[in-house]
Specification:
InterPro entries: AAA+_ATPase, ABC_AA/LPS_Transport, ABC_transporter-like_ATP-bd, BCA_ABC_TP_C, P-loop_NTPase. Pfam families: ABC_tran (PF00005), BCA_ABC_TP_C (PF12399). Residues 4-251 form the ABC transporter domain. This protein is of the alpha/beta class and 251 residues long. It folds into 2 domains: 1-79 and 170-251, P-loop containing nucleotide triphosphate hydrolases (Rossmann fold, 3-Layer(aba) Sandwich); 89-169, no CATH class. 40% of the residues lie in helices and 24% in strands. The protein has helices at residues 42-49, 72-78, 95-103, 111-116, 119-138, 154-167, 184-199, 211-217, 235-240, 242-249; strands at residues 4-13, 16-26, 31-35, 57-62, 65-66, 80-82, 172-176, 203-207, 220-225, 228-233. It has a 6-stranded mixed β-sheet, sandwiched between helices. Helix 3 packs across helix 5. The longest helix has 20 residues, at 119-138. It is globular, with a radius of gyration of 19 Å. The two termini are 37 Å apart. 38% of the residues are buried.
């Protein structure tokens, strides 16, 4: 059974039809690429999945449970994390603190425990620090745990966003243009990192314009154009699809 399933999603903003009958799935340990020209509706798909936008019709299911209409924090608690096209780190916080914020989504201590510094709260804080450090280590940022996010190089900030998503202990990660602004060496490192993420059993849905990255790591690719799915298939099939070539890759 697919972990994440979109079933005939439609989104309308007034008279604008942003998505029309979008339907696909992402299975455990799979990397699915979501591509298309600017304005195709890719980020809108992410916003529907994560509860930022409400679908006009259709449904989103996760592990067989409908999550359509849930708030973003509820979607995160279900095990779906995301990054953003424009970096949205807490710039004045350290790398470790950024990841700790995500880990607090799994926190069970209440306000009283935090104020009184109860033994259970202290143990949980230790666990949060340990899990956050582990996420940084996984993304190759372990030695930068105490570095303020705004002082980190751009490529490392991109990696920190993924580390923060991993710190929430997700089963699915939505990556919104993770290779944007990266040089070839950084893009190669990113591809290796995403491969290691799937080795953990985490499935990935990725919006990306760097076709070398998309073709290099995706198991399947979904193509949108003006909010409509025009193709879905293996990378080699998408490369040869005439509709994709015309709409996105160019003649």
């Amino acid at each position: 059974m697919a972990n994440l399933t979109l079933d005939d999603i439609c989104v309308r903003f007034g008279g604008l039809q942003a998505l029309t009958d979008v339907a696909f799935s992402v299975s455990e340990g799979e990397v699915v690429g979501l591509i298309g020209p600017n304005g195709a509706g890719k980020t809108t798909v992410f916003n529907v999945i994560t509860g930022v936008y409400k679908a006009s019709s259709g449904s989103v299911s996760y592990d067989g449970t409908k999550i359509t209409g849930l708030r973003p924090y509820q979607v995160l608690s279900m095990g779906i994390a995301r990054t953003f096209q424009n970096i949205r780190l807490f710039q004045n916080m350290t790398a470790l603190e950024n990841c700790m914020v995500a880990q607090h989504s799994r926190s069970k201590s209440g306000v009283a425990g935090a104020i009184l510094r109860s033994p259970s709260q202290r143990r949980e804080e230790e666990r949060i620090i340990e899990k956050s450090q582990k996420a940084l280590d996984f993304m190759g940022l372990g030695r930068r745990a105490d570095e303020v996010a705004s002082n980190m190089p751009y490529g490392h900030q991109r990696r920190l966003e993924i580390a923060r998503a991993l710190a929430s202990e997700p089963h699915t990660i939505l990556l919104d243009e993770p290779a944007a602004g990266l040089n070839p060496a950084e893009s190669k490192e990113l591809m290796e990192s995403i491969g290691r993420i799937t080795d953990l059993g985490i499935n990935v849905l990725m919006v990306e314009h760097d076709m070398k990255v998309v073709m290099g790591i995706c198991n399947r690719i979904v193509v949108l154009d003006h909010g409509v799915m025009i193709a879905e298939g293996l990378p080699e099939e998408i490369q040869k699809n005439p509709d994709v070539i015309e709409a996105y890759l160019g003649q």
